[in-house]
Amino acid sequence: MKERLQKCLAQAGLASRREAETWIVAGRVVVNGRVAQLGESADPEVDRIEVDGRPLPAGERKYYLLLNKPAGYVTSAKDPEGRPVVTDLVRTIPARLFSVGRLDLTTEGLLLLTNDGDLAQRLAHPRHEVEKTYLVRVRGGLTPAARFRLESGVELDDGPTAPARVDDLRCTAGHSWFKLTIHEGRNRQVRRMCEAVGFPVSRLKRIRLAFLELDHLATGSFRHLTAAEVAQLRQL
Ligand code: URA
């Protein structure tokens, strides 16, 4: 079936659609011996597609991993400062993996990694509003007023947040723990929301993304998604 060229490259696991577009614009992609133009379609089963002179890998195996990211790892394939990166934890997988969205350096928890660039980009797109739940620790006792503000929407410098949900609030000596469920994915959103209501985050862990839960996966380890989970992700 003919598809937009950037989609063919993303489905082959080479790059996200957006990155593939820049390759096409830069003249690095050739279809049937002719330099491709942006907007062109091709059928990977029929057409000969090359990137930098190399043919598209035929039917590269797709990997879908659920990682329990430890704090101190950068969500990236490389870090210019030489800090550990999340792909260090999946070195046994023979593919170039992308993360679906990002977690901050000090955030722990559920991170999806895949070489299915197309699915990664679709899931991370703000339009899809995939629900995420974080386990949050803040200093001090979260007040009812602060909870109300988190749940009704907080004014941030990039606009108000959508209503969120606070569950399982527990206060211990000096700290409060709660689950915060949001369905946006702005940069450092949970930290900024909590700070805006006067309770800076001291620990943050993502425990759920849509229907996927971290469960008892050990910190730093990963599991493969099941075929049923991948199918369900595609339907989101
Ligand atoms: N919100 C944050 O503030 N940080 C993360 O890593 C994820 C969500």
Keyword list:
236 residues, alpha+beta, Structural Genomics Hypothetical 15.5 Kd Protein In mrcA-pckA Intergenic Region, Chain A, Alpha-Beta Plaits, 3 domains, 9-stranded mixed β-sheet, 4-stranded antiparallel β-sheet, 6 helices, elongated, binds uracil
Brief synopsis:
The protein is α+β, with helices and mostly antiparallel strands and 236 residues long.
Question: Would you mind describing this structure in some detail?
Answer:
- This protein has 236 residues and is α+β, with helices and mostly antiparallel strands.
- It has three domains: 53 residues, RNA-binding S4 domain (Structural Genomics Hypothetical 15.5 Kd Protein In mrcA-pckA Intergenic Region, Chain A, Roll), CATH 3.10.290; 80 residues, 2-Layer Sandwich (Alpha-Beta Plaits); 79 residues, Alpha-L RNA-binding motif (Alpha-Beta Plaits, 2-Layer Sandwich), CATH 3.30.70.1560.
- A hairpin with a 2-residue loop joins strand 11 and strand 12.
- It is elongated, with a radius of gyration of 20 Å.
- Bound molecules: uracil.
- The site of uracil has 8 residues, from helix 5.
Topology at a glance:
Elements (H helix, E strand, L loop, with lengths): L2 E2 H7 L5 H9 L3 E3 L2 E2 L5 E2 L6 E3 L2 E2 L8 E6 L28 E2 L8 E7 L2 H8 L7 E8 L4 H9 L2 E2 L2 E2 L4 E8 L2 E8 L6 H8 L4 E9 L2 E2 L8 E3 L2 H9 L1
Parallel strand pairs: 9-15
Antiparallel strand pairs: 1-4, 2-3, 2-5, 5-6, 7-9, 7-17, 8-9, 10-14, 10-15, 11-12, 13-14, 15-16
